[in-house]
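Kindly draft a polypeptide, keeping tokens residue-aligned:

***
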Amino acid sequence: MFHLGLSAFFYVKGKRIMWKKLWMLLVLLIGIPSYILAVGAVTPDGYCRGIYLAGKVKVVPYHGDLRVKVVGSFPDLRVQRVRSFPQHVGEWQYVEYGQDFTIQYVEVFPDLRIQFVRAFPGVV
């Protein structure tokens, strides 16, 4: 009798492959590239997604150039707020116009994790 339900095997060109092996392959194909992309969000010279992480920053509610999460430990970047001349990596001046890049604060799926510091900003 012919049954249309899910079987324990998947047929590819006449060969049987178990579902368990397919799921393991799927996890490897999706999981490893995702992990590689997540590791090292900031390059040693201070770039993230092609944006130099110093300068004038504008906070926007959505569609920012970078999605940022503020953390207390294990940051990708230490950020120091400055009032003028943000020249070095991690020195940010918050502005309403004339920004170098925009950020959006998020809780999940950030591009960058930052920690605010009073001294020694930069890449961790």
Notes: The two ends are 63 Å apart (CA to CA).
